[in-house]
Amino acid sequence: LVSASLAFSLTTPNPGAGGYVDELKGGRLSGVLETRPYPILRVPAQDGRGPRAIMLSGQGKAGVADEAVSLNGQWAEVSGIFVKRGDLDMLLVGGRPGLVGDDPPVDMVQPSAPLSLGRWRLTGEICDGKCYAGAMRPGTGLAHKACANLCITGGVPPVFVTTSPVEGRSFLLMAGADGGPLPPELLDQTAVRIELEGDVEQRDDLLIFRVETTVKPGVGS
C-alpha cells in the first residue's frame, strides 16, 4: 500500500497545494440548488464568466444535505468561504443564514440539462473534496484515509482525482450508478490508486463520475 501511494503521487499531475479563498468577501452567491448526488449550486453565467456548478459542503466534517433537501430545484442564496485547488471549487456554507431560499430573478434562465460524455474507465484516487481542496494537509494518500472516510460518511462530496484529465479536468464529483451518493462499499477504496468504470456527465463546468462498484487495483496500470 505504501508503494502504491508513492507511485500514485509520482504519476499524478500536481494541481497545487490549495487552500481557503474568500471569493465572496461577505457576500452571497445565488443559483438553482440541486441535491443529487450531493448539494450543488448551479450559478448562471454572469460578469463575463460562464455558468458554474459549485459543490457545497459544511464547515466541519459534514455536508449540507439536510439543509438543502427542502430547496431542491429552487433558487437559493449561499454564503461561506471557498476551498480551491486546481480546477476544484467547493463552497463551505457558513454565516447566518448560510443557505436560504429566495425569489428567482425575473430574467432567470433554467440550468442546462446534464450532458452525457459517455462511459469511461479511469485510474485515480477517491478523496473527500473538502480536504483535497486544501482544508487539511495531506488531503490525499494513506495518511488521510480515516479522515476522508469520516468526511464522506458525513456528507462531504467525494471526488475522484484522475491520473489523466477528462475533458481537461483532473477531478470529478463522484456518484453511484443511479446518480445518487457514492455507494458505501467504495469507502474501503479511499486513499489508494484504483481503476473504476462508469458514466461521466457534465453539468456546467462540473464533471460527475457515476461509478460502478466493481474495483480494480490501479497500481502499474
Structural summary, described in words:
- The chain is mostly beta strands and 221 residues long.
- 14% of the residues lie in helices and 39% in strands.
- The protein has helices at 2-11, 65-68, 129-135, 145-153; strands spanning 19-21, 29-34, 40-43, 52-57, 75-78, 80-85, 88-93, 99-101, 115-128, 158-166, 169-176, 194-203, 206-211, 216-217.
- The strands form two sheets. An eight-stranded mixed sheet has the order 1-6-7-4-3-2-5-8.
- The two termini are 15 Å apart.
- The model is unreliable at 4-13 (pLDDT under 50).
Entry keywords:
221 residues; mainly beta; eight-stranded mixed β-sheet; 39% strand
Short description:
The chain has 221 residues and is mostly beta strands. Helices cover 14% and strands 39% of the residues.
Q: What do the pLDDT scores average to? A: 87
- Low-confidence residue ranges: 4-13
Overall morphology: globular
Distance between the termini: 15 Å
Order of helices and strands: HEEEEHEEEEEHHEEEEE
Helical region count? 4
Indicate the topology:
Blueprint: H1 2-11, E1 19-21, E2 29-34, E3 40-43, E4 52-57, H2 65-68, E5 75-78, E6 80-85, E7 88-93, E8 99-101, E9 115-128, H3 129-135, H4 145-153, E10 158-166, E11 169-176, E12 194-203, E13 206-211, E14 216-217
Parallel strand pairs: 4-7, 11-13
Antiparallel strand pairs: 1-6, 2-3, 2-5, 3-4, 5-8, 6-7, 9-10, 9-12, 10-11, 12-13, 12-14
